[in-house]
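thread: overnight batch results

M.L. [08:02]
morning all. the overnight job finished for the chain we discussed friday. pasting input first so we're all looking at the same thing
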Amino acid sequence: MEEDLLAGPESHPSPAGVRVISVQGVDASHLVLTDTNLSDCLFSGAFHLDQIRLEGGRTTFAPTPTGWHRRGLRLVHWTRRRILAEEHHWRAHAAGQPVPAAGTPSEPRLWRPGAHHRDPARSPDPASVAALYRQLRKAFEDGKNEPGAADFYYGECEMRRHDLSDTTPKSERRLLWAYWLLSGYGLRPSRAFTWLLAAMSLTVMLLMGFGLPTHDPDPATTGTLTGTKISLHTSTPDPTLHDSWTQRRTWARAEKATRVAINSVVFRSSGQNLTVPGNYIEMASRLLEPTLLALGILAIRGRIKR
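M.L. [08:03]
and the structure it wrote out:
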């Protein structure tokens, strides 16, 4: 026996393009896959999937469809992430895609149908796919690769959001919809910061229209003379707004409203004199916008955490 056969992986790298089609029925507790193509691999039915080890920097999974897609009047663009073949099969069935002809290459703009595309009973459902994502996410996290596990957490939440069975209650699905819409399950910082910018812009416009008074109220002091004693009383009138709509839309008011919005997000209080509607606008801003800021920071941390 030649000693070079015992050399490490650098001397004998994995063959290029090694593809695993299925691990169904396999005990994955001692399974190690290095630099393999898992874009068509079926994981459903494997045992101890959370203990599988996926090594190497060239392990690949299936991507989401590319390009823009029309859903009624809406244009949809799928977030780029690594997904399982089982999710491809379920989404192709849910979208009612036709089965491609034998030998036809897969279309990158479409979901890929599975072998049992015409039989819903044998196609994976969202609850089953969510369990697969959960186990593989744990395998990545146990390997100290939390950024690598981010796509699997996203996929797990996606499947739970679309799960209409009793496995995921309706209230939980609604929370997942809100979490997805605001920050992509805490993994899409651009979405959270876009919502934050939109919320702050709305706050600025509302403050310009209803929240900032025409002038800062000046304190007024009144006194009462009783014999040789003088009693002084200082009061500040309530802020009022009586300008026309044209007078409210000025750069000076826009700059002041911007300072109020930023201070409310960062410092939690603006310290400005506001009208009664303005105080309620600021309270709503102090509740919503710091939450969006925190979601954006959480999303950045989720993508780079080690």
